[in-house]
Write a structure and sequence with these properties.
The complex is a heterodimer of chains A (about 120) and B (about 120). Chain A has about 120 residues and is mainly β. Chain A is built from no helices and eleven strands. In chain B, strand 5 and strand 6 form a beta hairpin.
């Protein structure tokens, strides 16, 4: 049930773009994205719901393809502060259309932005 | 505003000892969660509570117990610690009552080493 994230790691120069993908084998109710800096707690970035609704960070965009059970996080014009490990968390959609209620996290994508 | 606090920050524990990790939130969130984070495995849900008085099992509940006597506190107990429980433990909370945007807020974590 654990979603698969790709790539596992990416190194960028400041100003470059990156895409992080999250794929699930289960029907999804929502996808959450979090960023964790070394030694710190994960911090919420964005949530994407089925039907196209989303809420999150102004400078970060993401997409959610409900049919393919996939989400992508787009980091444009990366800054040094974007460095960290990015996790997607998926809410499984139940047969009645609602959420299972809990998040299942992927193993993370480590992003390093160099000057 | 504290958000979520966890105690202790770190602990070294002898195998076989009993240990309780504390978690307190001041956001009046109905839902609370305990995760463990191990290198390369991401965040795995141990136990959760959707409201005071109720708890549920997550992905890796064996060897752990929780209680939710009130809204603010959600302690995690290791009855008899084993070395495989060496990990970083994160507590999180969210307001799921709206059923829509239920981002999770994480505490700073407890680093536990079982020898």
């Amino acid at each position: 049930q654990q979603p698969v994230q790709s790539p596992q790691a990416v190194i960028l120069r400041e100003g470059e773009d990156a895409v992080i993908n999250c794929s699930s084998s289960k029907a999804l109710y929502s996808v959450h994205w979090y960023r964790q800096k070394h030694g710190e707690a994960p911090v919420f970035l964005m949530i994407l719901l089925k039907g196209g609704e989303q809420k999150g960070h102004e400078k970060i965009s993401a997409s959610f393809n409900e049919k393919k059970q996939q989400s992508s996080l787009y980091l444009t014009a990366s800054q040094l502060s974007y460095s960290g490990t990015y996790f997607c968390g998926t809410e499984i959609r139940m047969n009645y259309g609602g959420s299972q209620g809990n998040l299942i996290f992927g193993k993370g994508t480590k992003l390093s932005v160099k000057p | 505003i504290a958000g979520i606090t966890q105690a202790p920050t770190s602990q070294i524990l002898a195998a076989g000892r009993r240990m309780t990790l504390r978690c307190t939130q001041d956001m009046r969130h109905n839902a609370m969660y305990w995760y463990r984070q191990d290198l390369g495995l991401g965040l795995r849900l141990i136990h959760y509570s959707n409201t005071a008085g109720t708890t549920g099992k997550g992905e890796v509940p064996d060897g752990y117990s929780v209680s939710r006597a009130n809204t603010d506190d959600f302690p995690l107990t290791l009855a008899s610690a084993v070395p495989s429980q060496t990990s970083v433990y994160f507590c999180a909370s969210s307001d799921t009552r709206t059923g829509v945007y239920n981002e999770q807020f994480f505490g700073p974590g407890t680093r536990l080493t079982v020898l």
